[in-house]
Amino acid sequence: GTDPVVLDLIGLTKGEAWINGKSIGRYWPTMVADNNSCSDKCDYRGNYGADKCLSGCGEPSQRFYHVPRSFLNNDTNTNSNTLILFEEMGGNPINVCVKTITIGSICATAGYGKTLEIKCPDGKTFSQIAFASYGNPQGKCGSFQVGVWESSDSASVIENACIGKQSCSVSVTSSTFKINQGGNDGQLAVQLLCDGSDPEIGRVEKVKNLHNDISREKLSLNESGPQSEL
Questions:
Q1: Around Cβ 129, how many Cβ atoms within 10 Å?
Q2: Is 212 a domain residue?
Q3: Where are the beta strands (DSSP E) in the chain?
Q4: Domain for residue 121, yes or no?
Q5: Fewer Cβ atoms within 10 A, N terminus or C terminus of the chain?
Q6: Is the pTM of this model over 0.90?
Q7: Total domain count for the chain?
């Protein structure tokens, strides 16, 4: 497959991991994020603050580690990979496992004058708008809410720019969202589903399958040999 691969290191404490001799870095799942700093409201505007828009409070700060597919052994003859764990504090590896991540939706925000750019994984396209609002939206991914004001054209602009495509970009300006007066301090927040199929990928796969069928048919004819008439 092509989905991202991760190593779930829950149950371990602190150390380093190698996949087929290549280090994926040090891990520290027992480093738990503070339990009292998260909020349902998220707004990055204004002065920088390290505590803005925090998530995952009370959870391990280092649990899932990305494993580049280039590290994995794709040899069909062996089809095996070796994981080596160096544990410094005596963790329990019984729950360690390898997972693939399927991206079902994508969230993004962008301030006025910026360009919002989003992209689905290979083979997928944007199929549906879960949320789209240009104005002063509140909340975070999965719980966005419309603020005090918004452009009534928010959804239609995003639909025209993104639906049916693997990637899209939107210039975040008042003119883009058809606001004639004001609206120069707005923010765009979107959440789109990535479960559509890319028609180009589908066409290529059909051609490959057709070529494979033809090749198998030719091989079958060659193996059967010429037929003689009686």
A1: 17
A2: no
A3: 5-8, 15-19, 22-27, 64-67, 83-87, 97-100, 105-111, 115-119, 124-125, 128-135, 167-171, 187-193, 196-197
A4: yes
A5: C
A6: no
A7: 2
